[in-house]
TrEMBL record, chains A, B:
Official protein name in the record: Glutathione S-transferase
InterPro entries hit by this protein: Glutathione-S-Trfase_C-like, Glutathione-S-Trfase_C_sf, Glutathione_S-Trfase, Glutathione_S-Trfase_N, Thioredoxin-like_sf
Keywords: Transferase
Annotated coiled-coil segments of the chain: none
Gene Ontology MF annotations: transferase activity
GST C-terminal domain span: 90-213
Domain of life: Bacteria
Ranges of residues in domain GST N-terminal: 8-87
One Pfam assignment: GST_N
CDD domains attached to this UniProt entry: GST_C_8 (cd03207), GST_N_GTT1_like (cd03046)
Length: 216, 216
């Protein structure tokens, strides 16, 4: 039996790989683990059957026998702990990689989520332009610090890890706003992530869902 | 040798236990692990010596021999993995507890951080009242879902875990805004966390730093 994940039946990003199932698909591909996908409509995500799997009514979830997980960060960590290739075996290096997983989700992603709030919910507000500029500057502060850490290294801390997987995934969400390209080493870092065969397989799989659902 | 953590020399919350070193102190107290504290001024946090420990120039960090970690979530997870009492031994229950750690930091905390942005950076803006109401409603949506999951249970998923430790810590940040009390079972849940002897020792330790530094 393969594990089963959930994903959007019709992703709001039109298959650009920004929905959070992409992080789990990518981790599963890096780990060489086949998986099944159950697609959910927006209304099905809020129904009790899915709430029992995900208390906040979101995707992705992960089910494998008795195990039922939610939160993409936790699922990626679980996959990384139970397969080779996403966390280094050395305990110190492993703990460092996990620091980067949390940094991606709790330090770098929050202002990026805030920019999405501005773009999707505040576009018609009088304050739209000023708030967007403020949030972009908050993102720039984080990216400048990240860029200063990365310098000319390929990955954040030694070899590619689940920390890089989550950081690249988070940074991809800000590329369309044009901010990523202000930091050439970060843009190259994200491109290195996207060039990985596992990323490409995951991206193709989630895009195929959108293409099929939209009849495109 | 005890591990060493870093904390604010003069906490912006005036010792109310909302700074992120509190999460690590609480975890160390639950684990029965003694620790040393190195206090940092705001300017020292941004200097190269601290940046080498924390790429984003924040607190807390955690040093134990060869190991140097940052991000409170990662530090709490490391403590939980290397001591008894914060993660259940059963693998399925352990992975569930870790899901709740990520839910606290990546699903519940982002809108709460956004409210802090409104309160600290947008109070003089024309949009302050309207934005504050919008962000409070975004927090309420998360808290309603969390309240619906918790019902009348003591903790989120079986016994107290690192997931509860982080969730209680995140919820404490919104209590002053009056939103927590709209969900009586969540208010009682937070109070159960605060009543734990380990929480109280950690709270007293971080308050003592502020009291000493402010001459109070």
């Amino acid at each position: 039996m393969n594990p089963t994940i959930t994903a959007f039946e019709l992703s709001p990003d039109r298959g650009r790989g920004l929905a959070r199932d992409m992080r789990v698909r990518w981790a599963l591909e890096e780990a060489g683990q086949r998986y099944d996908v159950r697609l959910l409509s927006f209304s099905a995500m809020k129904e009790p059957a899915h709430r029992a799997r995900h208390p906040f009514g979101q995707i992705p979830t992960y089910e494998d026998g008795d195990l039922a997980l939610f939160e993409s960060g936790a699922i990626v960590l679980h996959i990384a702990e139970s397969h080779a290739g996403l966390l280094p075996p050395d305990p110190v290096a492993r703990a460092r990689a996990i620091s980067w997983m949390f940094a991606a989700l709790n330090t770098v992603e929050p202002p990026i989520l805030d920019l999405q709030t501005v773009l999707f919910l505040e576009r018609d507000k009088s304050w739209f332009e000023e708030r967007r500029a403020m949030v972009k500057d908050a993102i720039r502060r984080r990216l400048a610090e990240l860029s200063g850490h990365l310098r000319d290294a390929d990955w954040l801390d030694g070899g590619f890890s689940a920390g890089d997987l989550l950081m690249v995934s988070v940074l991809l969400r800000v590329r369309a706003a044009g901010i990523l390209d202000e930091y050439p080493n970060l843009a190259a870092y994200v491109a290195r992530g996207e060039a990985r065969p596992a990323y490409q397989r995951a991206f193709a799989a989630q895009l195929a869902v959108f293409t099929a659902a939209s009849g495109g």
